[in-house]
Amino acid sequence: DTGVSQDPRHKITKRGQNVTFRCDPISEHNRLYWYRQTLGQGPEFLTYFQNEAQLEKSRLLSDRFSAERPKGSFSTLEIQRTEQGDSAMYLCASSLGTNRDTTNEKLFFGSGTQLSVL
Amino acid sequence: GNSVTQMEGPVTLSEEAFLTINCTYTATGYPSLFWYVQYPGEGLQLLLKATKADDKGSNKGFEATYRKETTSFHLEKGSVQVSDSAVYFCALAPWGTGGFKTIFGAGTRLFVKA
After folding, report:
1. How far apart are CA A42 and CA A54, in angstroms?
2. Per residue, what are the HEC states of chain B?
3. Is the pLDDT assigned to residue A115 strictly greater than 90?
4. What is the pLDDT of residue A117?
5. Is the CB of B10 inside 8 Å of chain A's CB atoms?
6. Is the pLDDT at B77 greater than 60, yes or no?
7. In whole angstroms, what is the distance from residue A111 CA to residue B41 CA?
8. What is the dihedral of CA A32, B75, A42, B93, to 10 degrees?
9. Shortest CA distance to A110 belongs to which of A93, A97, A96, A95?
């Protein structure tokens, strides 16, 4: 178990630029989540995948945000035309989830990508 | 709607002091309740959980009891150590839902002085 890894750890960009983050989940986990965390707040759900299918998206995920998990393994989160309000920590989590026993689903988080939009 | 409220930090304690971090929730039905911990520079880790009323979750000397009557899930530890310095998040997941429905509190930062 090598844990959930995210790349890069930090990203500084200028307003209007596009950025892409990568998440590598724990290898046997079928579910992958993206969250956003701003200073002094808890993580807020953005979207999640079961295998390669994107099953749920939060209304926080504007049309400038897109996430993919093409082969059901790693995932990317892209933000187009970044705005200063996009500055936050972007967290990825994975889990081994089944539809039959969601109460025991345990999330494993990566260390996050800190985005600063200047 | 569902929500979690936890006490504001930072909380500063001396080593071996007793810790309580308050957490209350609003939810329909019977949610599962969690405490996550985030050490500096690391991702969130599940600390403990409880899935039904009166359950007590425990791990690493930390405990929390699911109190339906007071809608609370307070985190306690009898004797804190410097290594417990971290941010603690209370969270809930509505009954029958998966991780994508987990709602986190704002977090409480704990500093433990030697």
Report:
1. 23
2. CCEEEECCCCEEEECCCCEEECEEEECCCCCEEEEEEECCCCCEEEEEEECCCCCEEEECCEEEECECCCCECCEEECCCCHHHCEEEEEEEECCCCCHHHCEECCCEEEEEEC
3. yes
4. 97
5. no
6. yes
7. 7
8. 50
9. A93
At A101, is the pLDDT very low, low, confident or very high (cuts 50, 70, 90)? Answer: low
Interface test with chain A among B5, B32, B42, B44, by most A beta carbons within 10 Å:
B44
Mean local confidence (pLDDT), B33-39: 94
- The C-alpha atoms of residue B5 and residue B22 are separated, in whole angstroms, by 8
The tokens of A32 are what? 């992958």
Is A103's pLDDT higher than 90? no
Total residues belonging to chain B: 114
Q: Which residues of A touch B (CB under 8 A)?
A: 3-4, 31, 33, 40-45, 48, 55-56, 91, 93, 95, 97, 102-112
The answer on pLDDT for B58 being more than 80 is yes
In percent, the amount of chain A with pLDDT more than 70 equals: 94
Provide the token pair at A114: 């800190």
Average pLDDT over chain A reads 91
Q: Are A37 and A89 in contact (CB under 8 A)?
A: yes
Chain B residues near residue A102 by CB distance under 8 angstroms: 93, 96-99
Q: Which residues pair with A52 in a beta bridge?
A: none
Q: How far is A112 from chain B (nearest CA, A)?
A: 7
